Amino acid sequence: MIFLKRKRMSWVCMPFLLSSIFVHAQAVSDQSNFTINQVWAMADSNNKKILMQGLNVQAADAHVKVSKAERLPEVAAEGIYAHVLPLPIYENGLFHTPGQFPVAPTYYKASADAYFNIYNGGKTNTEVNASKVESELSRIQVGQSKQEIHYVAAVYFYDVFRNISYRGLLEQDIRDREKQLAEINQLYKNGTILKSDVLRAELRLSKQRMLLTEIENSIKIAKQKLNILIGRTDDAPLNPQILDQETDAIALKQVNEYFNDAKTSSYKIQISEKEQALTKLKLENVKSNVMPSLGFFGEYAFAYPQIQFYPYALSLYSTGMFGLKLKIPISSWYTNQHKVKEAELKVKQQEVEDEDVKDHIRQEVQENYIRYKESVQRITLAEENIKQATESYRIVQNTYFNQLSLLTDLLDAETQLLQSKFELTTAKVNAKIQYYQLQKAVGNL
């Protein structure tokens, strides 16, 4: 009775176990399917270049704290313990036996001193501001690195997709050619065609199989590149998931709108502006070299024996002082002029470089805008070429098997049809990559 009850319960639980196993298996299989957004997310988390840039941001933030810590007072402690050698006195000259003056054989001193900067020409504030700009610059560089990695990942991603598409087209073509070869062999057996036609058909089929091997190798290479880029193992399974509408043409804005977007979003322009700000802060720092520095200082010490002031004494003593310390860098009044001139030239150089970067970005946006429109036209042309090549192949195939055309005409028609299908896939992929390149130039990838 108990056995029957347990058996009944096992049958009741079986569907749940099977469903959980199926869900787990489906989850495992889904780990190999990636969209472009999932690939980018994995690259942001695992790419080593981005991780290094993240560490650079942390170092820049730490440097800001270091610069701010310069405002704190400097405090130091010092201790000395020494054995004092006897003091010889050469009363009759260096070459005669000296007399010995009695000295205390032991000397020790414990002291502490502090210095608090009140004014140093604004150098500390300038250093703090410069470190903040460097921290902002490091964050912009992280964004730029992510954008560069996104673009490279998209290239590898669509390279895998393109070659997989090639493989599907070529496998279908090989199946068709194998059927066709069987028909040609039948014609040869019937004495309708020559042996040379059979050999040509076999030669073309062997070339197609070799091309399939090359495509398989290209898929493996592209997958490895993408896996390494997003932090996965080299041979991890990866299948690009791309919807049909993702490769459709995208309606673009006016080119002037992309120019305006690039002025505020382009990472290259943002980096150039931050570098310009750094050169200006460096100029301020150099100009402050001629300014005096003023600070509060204090020191206190215990020492034995007392040999600092007369009369000396073999006793422990203490001494201390505090006050204001003023330092005027007089030599900087005539040596700092060339440093200021150099820093001013650096600022002008950076201004010119900033304008050059903006010109380059404007040219890059214009070029990618035009190239994308051109790539969309290539898609339309490739679709039209497929229609024409399909019709041409149909006509030549019918005429060949009716003994009205040569095998070379049929092979050319087949090659043209397959090439047209390849060109359509290439045109769609190139258009997508070109669009990403436009977005990268603007700073929105």
TrEMBL record:
Residues annotated as signal peptide: 1-25
Entries under InterPro entries matching the protein: OMP_efflux, TolC-like
Cellular compartment(s): Cell outer membrane
Cellular component, GO, one term: efflux pump complex
Short name of one Pfam family: OEP
Coiled coil: 372-399
Gene Ontology MF annotations: efflux transmembrane transporter activity; porin activity
Keywords: Cell outer membrane, Coiled coil, Membrane, Signal, Transmembrane, Transmembrane beta strand, Transport
Family recorded in the similarity comment: Belongs to the outer membrane factor (OMF) (TC 1.B.17) family.
Protein name: TolC family protein
Species of the source: Pedobacter roseus
